Amino acid sequence: MENIWTQFAAFITTGYGLALLRALVMVLLGLVFAKLLARAAFQVSHTYMQLQHAILLRRVVFYLVIGMALISAMRELGFSLTVVLGAAGILSVAIGFASQTSASNLISGLFLIGEEPFVIGDIIQVESLTGEVLSIDLLSVKIRTFDNLYVRVPNEKLIKSNITNLTRFPIRRLDVKIGVAYKENIKQVREVLMAVAEADPLCLEEPKPRILFLGFGDSSLDFQLSAWASRDRFFELRNSIPEAIKKAFDENGIEIPFPHRTLYPGSTAQPFPIRIINETS
Amino acid sequence: MEAKAVSEAAWWGAVEVPMGHTARWRIGPLHLSASRGEQEWRIVCRREKSPLDIAMSFHIEAGLAVEEEGAEITRFGFREPPSSIRLQPMLADRSVVVKPDTPLYIAAGEEVTLFISTPLWLQLFTGEQKTPLSEIPIYRPSDTWMGPSTMEGELCYSGTTSAKLKLEELVRRPHRAITPIVIRNHGDDVLRIEKLNVPVRYLTLQADERGTFWTRPVLLSREKSGEMGSVRIQGHRLTLPVKTTSVAAARDQYEESIMRRALARFVG
User: Fold this and answer.
1) pTM (global) more than 0.80
2) Predicted complex ipTM
3) A237 in contact with chain B, both atoms CB, cutoff 8 A
């Protein structure tokens, strides 16, 4: 043990040993300084810019300072930077071929950050996936679904897909489709639906709620109630208004029918045979 | 039970509530109860359907308020609950959109004054506390949107009464505040008014000797270009038709830069 320490002490006091020690100190100091500077850059910038831009700036500052510390450490150890850069240039061609997808994700990420189709905290829908944006990183976007699952979506996929931002605008329209029996009075149905919308304080008065007649369905007269709500209370209205419609229909005797089918044997076919069952037998 | 009819001038302010007793107010559509328990204040509120109800009463009774159907209950824990509770009237926490009875047209170079009333909110304070325990609307109006499009604008409350050209036509209610709105059309053509966005957040609340609530007049000015508008709230040369004292400060400070927005935000 004593021998190892003696050899170590002898090595440290040589020229190369001191250079190694200095390089290590540079890297450690660089790490500490990078973290502090990155944190300071985030604190200053996030009040003036979007959160994901501030996070990107923090990362850029961190890696820049680390990079400078590493370069200083390598120079201390006697590496020639031109040789290193030359080797990196050759390697990068090989790495480039191997990492096409990552490069594509990286570039797509930069475009997403610049274009801002969504920001952190927005609720977005991408194909069948709906959830809250947790972070917008260089290679992917992290989403939390409503059933609390963590999903990583590559940026390349987002750039190529239709993204629906459900929370970009402060108000949102709710469309409720309702069918009523053919025997019902269309005017009365409109009045009842409009009264339901007007009675709900979450339903915005402007833009005005609308009742659209969608058509003569197979089994019912089809309507659509379109009402607006603030983005924050949208789901509350989505839950409360169908209940209010059902209650209002019941109070006014308006029937929501089951699907109807009429069987017709045709004029040339035999009529359907019917057997009457006597209840007492 | 100590009961009394409440005059318009007396329904707000501080009341002493003995331990184990409940103070009950009826303020228009709002039924409000505040119970002082051994280590709590319990607030119960329930509202009638009509926002224009003018029933007013107050009494203190023994016992704590219990759960009622359709009521909201909130309990605040205290080591030693203060003996008094204070009701502080406030203006709405959002702008209020009001409409004249029928669309109004203001000729070029003309000026009209409309009178509107908006619902009040209540802040509840106990003892000498500076921070309110709770803030509740006397009547919660419907939401509405005011702006040039569904992408840009402001979430507001929808006014439940119409804007009137004559002050005498406006029914005075003890739980609503009256605001005179002066509209000047400096443009070259007629200005059509179908609805108005009243920025009550920037108004101070005042009360006259009869207890009727007022705010400072608001001036909406359509400039010569016809596009941009200015809104002036403070320092307007018009004064209120009655002598008033201050009841509550504005929720937000008025700044000229904030108010110089497109007229479409205020007039539709």
Assistant:
1) no
2) 0.76
3) no
